[in-house]
Known about the structure:
Largest sheet: 5 strands, parallel
Radius of gyration: 19 Å
Amino acid sequence: MLPQFLVIGAYKSGSTAIQEALRAHPQVFLPAKGPSFFAFDEAPAIDRPLLPGTVRDWAVYQALFADAPADAVHGEVSPEYLANPWACGRIRARVPDVKLVAVLRNPVERAFSDYLMYVRDGDEKLDFPAALDEQEERRRAGSPTGYYLETGFYGRQLRPYFEAFPRAQIQVHLFEDFAADPDAVLEPLFTFLGVDPALGTTPERAVNVSGVPRNALVGAAVRGGKRVAPLLPEAVRRRARTALVRGLDRPALSPEVRSRLVAVYREDVAELEQLLERPLGHWLEDGGT
């Protein structure tokens, strides 16, 4: 069995919450998040770190859907597909009729949220401006913290999909729309996938929240939780996640750094506006909302 839909990204744009909403729908089947198969399928070179759960074998990938009920719509969620330049061509070659879903977040806010996630997990030691200065060097070295900027060029990343697939096979949503009213995004998403919107449920709001641990104890709990979470029942994971979120602070993005990022993304946001036929100038304003 092959996927009938793919949620292709973007990173730190609500894909985990979308995954939960899809998994909760009785007419949808999903394997674990992030197999990222098409990003590395027959790739001549791997230019970025492989995340846990990545699948590179075709038979193993197909086996992910072996338990799908015959009447269920089945697909998977891999944010790597949008960021990875190899993925679009492999998706077109393997599953040309697949439906594609993207959820995009203000690239300035996305970059900062990505940074805070690595701070939260103890993998980022520099302040944000200094980390931005090292992006190119880190990316060339294959560091997982070298993509804060690169991952937010949605216009550049989405254009190959719009060129390779009919627009009727692509649906794009904005993170801020989902945050403001999840049902307003989930209803057209379920309809697009061919399942009954009335059977869907709104996911928990706080999922994979980024932030700076308030103290060393919270930081240790976050890092330890990542290791043991896969072994815990879902109800326990939810309670632990809720408790940890209370121990995270989210610092404000300085006006200077925001202006720096706005300049980086301005041209790409204009390209994205053309693709989506939707104004996105509010992403480039001082407030970023």
